[in-house]
Amino acid sequence: MGNQGYLFDDIEIFSPRKKKTKAEFYDYESFVKKFTDAPKTTDDCYTPRDVYEEVLNYVNTICPLNGKKIIRPFYPGGDYKNCEYPDDGVVIDNPPFSILSGIIEFYVGEGVKFFLFSPALICTHKADICTAVVANADIVYTNGAVVKTNFVTNLLSADILLITAPELKTSLERLKPRKARLLKNAYPKNVLGVAEMHQLVNGGERFVVKRSEARLTRHLDGLPKDLFGKHLLVSDQKAEEFAAAKARADAAKARADAAKARADAAKAIVIELSERERGIVKELSAKQEEARG
User: Fold this and answer.
1) Beta carbons within 8 Å of 246's beta carbon, 6+ residues apart
2) Which single residue of 63, 179, 219, 250 has CA 20 to 30 Å from 20?
């Protein structure tokens, strides 16, 4: 069952059994399907096939995979510590997030090559011994959980602490189900609704519409459906008055937003580097300057 229709014909994908036993091939997706009714925790986030293939594509760009064995030891009941890892193997899998740090330490200690899924904010927890790959991708896993995901690996040069992967984010988020985009009607300037009045209120504008200046309506001849709530069909003069009021309201709101941003910045607690930390920065800067020649 080694041929699962993946994009790389020469790659074998299998789950290793315990040491001293023969590795067997199987259909990973069918195997985990029976666990989909289990409690939905971050450790139950099994990987959809299309997501996994996009990750394989990316890994292949940083480390050619042809001729290598792709290992997936993280399945329900699997024991990654007592698995057989061939010399030409690479673990590309989505491990239980709760024990990710221990998994990384084990693989680095055993010399096992890996590219693992990671919750976004903890991908640097073990960046002292591997590389954090920042994709910032919202992945929809098979249990329906949407998890912001990064990755960790030891396939890159050991001197690389962190790397961003915008191309991986793009390819993964193309797989997300797209919500239907509802088209918004653009009404003539003479049609005003409560939503437009909200904009004036938010900008501090007082606006008065007299009965002689408007008619209430829920229907426009050019619309197949009624309007949501009664709107005002106003005179040209009142429409111009509204446009001027809205411009003032928008300007006032922009000023208020800028003032709030300045106030928030002024209230922020400023953290200074310690003498020890400044010494580290000075040392790093000197090394980089020396490397540039």
Assistant:
1) 196, 199, 200, 203, 205
2) 63
| Strand segments (E) across 10-119 | 12-14, 69-71, 89-93, 113-119
Percent of the chain whose predicted confidence (pLDDT) is above 90 = 66
The helix/strand/coil state of 233 is strand
The amino acid at residue 232 is L
Condensed to tens digits (0 to 9), the pLDDT of residues 74-121 reads 987 788 998 889 999 999 999 998 999 999 999 999 999 999 999 999
Helix (H, G, I), strand (E, B) or coil at 41: coil
Radius of gyration of the chain (CA): 29
What is the C-alpha to C-alpha distance for residues 157 and 94, in angstroms, rounded to an integer?
A: 22
- Would you give the end-to-end CA distance of the chain in angstroms? 55
Pick from 147, 146, 116, 148: which is nearest to 132 by CA? 116
Tokens representing residue 51 in the block: 């997501």
